[in-house]
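All the exercises in this workshop are built on plain-text protein records. A learned vocabulary of local backbone shapes supplies the integers on the structure line. Once this layout is familiar, the rest of the handout is easier to follow. An example says more than a description, so a record of this kind follows:
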Amino acid sequence: MDFKDIADIGVFGGSGFYKFLDDIKEIRLETPYGAPSNNIFIGKIGNHNVAFMPRHGSAHSILPHMINYRANVWAMKHIGVKRVISPCASGSLQKHVKPGDFVICDQYVNFTQGRKDTFFDGPIVTHTSAALPYCENLRQYAIEACKKSGVNYHEKGTVVIINGPRFSTTAESKFFSNQGWDVINMSQYPEVHLVKEMDMCPLTIALITDYDCGLAGECPPVSHSEVIKVFNSNIENLKRMLFYLIESLPPETDCECKNTLASSRL
């Protein structure tokens, strides 16, 4: 079956997002990189066909270090997606970034290991710049959507990605906080970089669920149950913000993300 150009916006997120839409079409894809995390659910928001995929699987059973990121991103590209929005539950590394806040990330620091993080293992030598990892144009649309939806937000922030599935030690978390980094997560790398390698626009919206343990003595350390509790309590805000964002996007991209590959080769 030909799935070309059936969606122009992709969302990686929780398994419940697609349930907010009507007239859902579910499609199953095979990829050169193996099976993606889940089927893709296609719905309509405004003038856009939107593809949703739960990155951890429909039952949230795939741990961050086990996600087949290449298959997930390839599947989005294969169906015509041009922009990829990645909401993700994240911990705060700074006291002013509070649980319930949204952070529109502009930088990341990768502390993962062993993850397959490129589509280009040769024979053509490809060096993709990661200096500005997120689409600045798409970030500005997201900032406006946060204003319109009335959520508490931060216009920029650096996310540090750890391998998981364990949370940080207090010493590790203090180190991250002392660097001035803002939030911590387990799934953003290599997802964001692979999106860029496929000439799509990447956007990360960090939904703060807890304070990481580097703020020990000031705030309780992170627990998985608290993460889920805060995330679920804020999902309506996330849904509203995403709808405002997607409805505001023009049909075509007007940035340089679509030329990433061309500028990565001699």
Summary: The two ends are 35 Å apart (CA to CA). The domain at 9-261 is CATH 3.40.50.1580 (Rossmann fold). The chain has one domain: 9-261. The chain has a mean pLDDT of 91.
